[in-house]
From TrEMBL:
Residues 1-29 form the signal peptide. Keywords: Signal. One of its GO terms (cellular component) is periplasmic space. Pfam families: NMT1. This is ABC transporter substrate-binding protein. PANTHER family: ALIPHATIC SULFONATES-BINDING PROTEIN-RELATED (PTHR30024), TAURINE-BINDING PERIPLASMIC PROTEIN (PTHR30024:SF47). Belongs to the bacterial solute-binding protein SsuA/TauA family. InterPro entries: SsuA/THI5, TAT_signal.
Amino acid sequence: MNPQRRTLLKTSALAAAMTGIGMPLLARAAEKVKVGYLHTPAVDGQIWTGLETGAFAEQGLDLQMIKFTTGLELFQAMIGGSLDVLSTGAVVSNFPARGQGKVFLVNNVEYATAQLWVRGDAGFSSAADLKGHKISTTAGTTAHVFLDRVLHGAGLQEGKDVQIVNQRMTEAVTSFISGAVPAVALWVPFDVTVRQKVEGARMLVDASAFYPQAAIVGGWAARNDYYDKNPKLIQALIKGWVSANDYLLSNTDTAVATLQKKHYPEVPLPELQNQFKASKYFTSAEWRAKYADGTVTKWLQQVTDFFVQTAKIANPVPASTYFDPKPYLDIVKA
């Protein structure tokens, strides 16, 4: 036999043997993905769970996690090219309606994550009592969308009956704590600070009062060009998320305890458990049904309608266009 051919056959046999016992000759490098996120369980719960369980690594992904304070800042960074994808709350229905971002995955319904808190010394017993007062919040976020529902339900109009003080959430909470404003619309976990710092403060209402008629969903969006050029990577993200989501729901106590220990050490475990309960989660199969029957598209569009009205978005892109359920439906079979 030709010596070169003998060598080639030996090399091929060795490579095959190594692969057969789980030792590939050449390990493929993990794909790096720049992921922007908000540090609240409703947004990053599945992500950290997937990173802890190896769900994303199994899909060949190396998530580069970059934390932001608001969804507005997340989208601005992604549009500018600093992020590939992002996970956020209600703002996922905002920028894509402007043609800036493609939504491909939802995390949960922010069932009770948005909350309206009032000072105990303000004498408020209902939302109607807010007339003539200031309310701090971060405009264009989940908290603002929720506050709009509250005001409409009480027959109040923003700018006419109440004054909205637009601040970053940390500053909005600080204003409430100092007494500069008697009310604040926030999202968890900022309620922890309010409970600790303001004696007598109480939650007047949360977003659960408006479910499901005015459900607010949070989820994932990708830069338009990134989404178009990386269909396999988007599929890998969804597969990793599906594994993490179902693990989180089937092993909730263990998963939440790990989240608290490794990613929310400043939040007592009972408090984090309550924050987890503030969102409405569904199994991957349950989500499939809601993708397929148009429920998710409807929920996204409801919040888009709010942004179209308040932000005066010209020629908005409908949720039926900016949300692409196909990759998820292809992966999660009925």
